[in-house]
Amino acid sequence: MPGRGPRLPRTTRVYAYGAAAGLAVDLLVGDPRRGHPVAAFGRAAAAVEQRLHRDHRGRGALHTAVCAGTTVALGALAARTVRGSHAASVALTAASVWAVVGGTTLGREARAIGGALAAGDLEVARERLPHLCGRDPQSLDGPAMARAVVESVAENTSDAVVGALFWGAVAGVPGLLGFRAVNTLDAMVGHKSPRYRRFGWASARLDDLAGWPGARLTAVLATAAGGNPRGALRAWRADAGKHPSPNAGPVEASFAGALGVRLGGTLSYGGRVEHRPVLNGEGRAVEVADIDRAVRLSRRVTWLTLAACVGGRILTNAVKRRYA
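and the corresponding structure tokens:
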């Protein structure tokens, strides 16, 4: 037909349709209360850890390689099995996206804590906070919990949504599953406790590497979609490098600037007190209403990520055709 452009490659269509469908399912139903695939992976990784654990970097690297490598291999095998069917490939991608993203549940948990804080029920808020982050809830008052929720929404937008979609665009189903496996391993063993100081080193470093592009994409999109691009960009440039995490820094700083609030400061994990730098020091203190604003920003970033990833694939395909 005259004037009709070239058809998109099959892999791009599979990713675009499958990722959109997976996000739609997550929006409608969220995570299952029981039998979540990520929880099943966590149990399997814990079983491998029991056999391999010794506080040694080599053992930790082997644990990471076995758990993440097996997940990627299974994803590749599943994709290869269904590659003869366009519908089955889209369905597998959709199921994988739904399994690895957690944007809807993230928003629900954040808003549940925000509702408890708005009602003045600090005990309920403290009971729910561990569902969202690993901080010691008993050490936090209402404003500190509100700040913790906003920080968790920002960081998990990158970890639970954007990073997975990015690696899905790059490597399909194996990329989606592999990213979630690495991120889950970091959450399980990557923290600096006496048990995991050396054993968790490989998981933590691999998570830093895998999360690097998604964190920067999250920061870019939060800056564009947050309503205060100048403030977000200023906070990102000035404060991201102060954060102890190379990936949480850009994400939390850009969210802080976009929302016009201060993040960072003193916090407590497992009885260990940390004094983190303040992000966007020109902003105001976090209020309960900012939790809902952060969730809405997270959702905008989610859908913009899908558009950016599909657009990136289209552009890459066009460049390849141009210079083939």
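(Above: one complete record from the training split.) The chain has eleven helices and two strands.
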